[in-house]
Amino acid sequence: MIKNILRLSFFSILGLAFLASCAKNNNTATGNNNNNNTYNPTLTATIGGSAWAPTSVSAGAVSGIVEIISKISGGTSFQVVFAYTSPGTYQLYKSTNSYIAYVNGQTSTSYMSTSGSIVVTSYSNHVMIGTFQGYCLNLSTVTDSISVTNGKFNVYVN
User: d(Cα 118, Cα 68) in Å, to the nearest integer?
Assistant: First the structure.
């Protein structure tokens, strides 16, 4: 049963990744951001004991689902996805619409959260700020896992 849930989750990640790849880059904000009308989104974390320093970060929302995608070279990516309603805490184990996921592009290994939380501390003028942490299992081998700690994001959500 867990393998079926993990497979379903994996395909959900792929679907959202496909939708996100079709979306425009949301790094440009309207209003007075940085006095030059651009917004530099950030997402940082410690993944499996190593600092995550992505080369690109983007965010978007479709039908109330917020997706924050960060990438490094080689196709490795990390996602924070949740059904947003208002600032607050979103538990990762209570909903299939809220999860964190890590895909290692070098090894084609995918991990998805089984526990943890996303905390949105503020959302104003399309700028969303929050934190996250969780425990993720390998979708192919449930004996392989990674911890995600010290997660922070500051993104423009269009």
Answer: 12
Grouped pLDDT means (10 residues each) for the chain, 158 residues: 42 41 40 55 97 96 95 95 92 84 94 96 95 96 94 95
> Does the model's pTM come out above 0.70?
yes
Write the DSSP symbol of residue 107.
T
Centre a 10 Å sphere on the Cβ of residue 115 and count the other Cβ atoms it contains. 13
- Helix, strand or coil for residue 5? helix
8-state DSSP, 93: S
Of 130, 149, 141, the closest CA to residue 81 belongs to 130
Positive or negative, the Cα torsion across 95, 98, 130, 101? positive
Q: Taking the CB of residue 31, how many other CB atoms lie within 10 A of it?
A: 10
SS3 31: coil
CB count within 10 Å of CB 23 equals: 15
| Spatial separation of the C-alpha atoms in residues 132 and 119, rounded to whole Å | 6
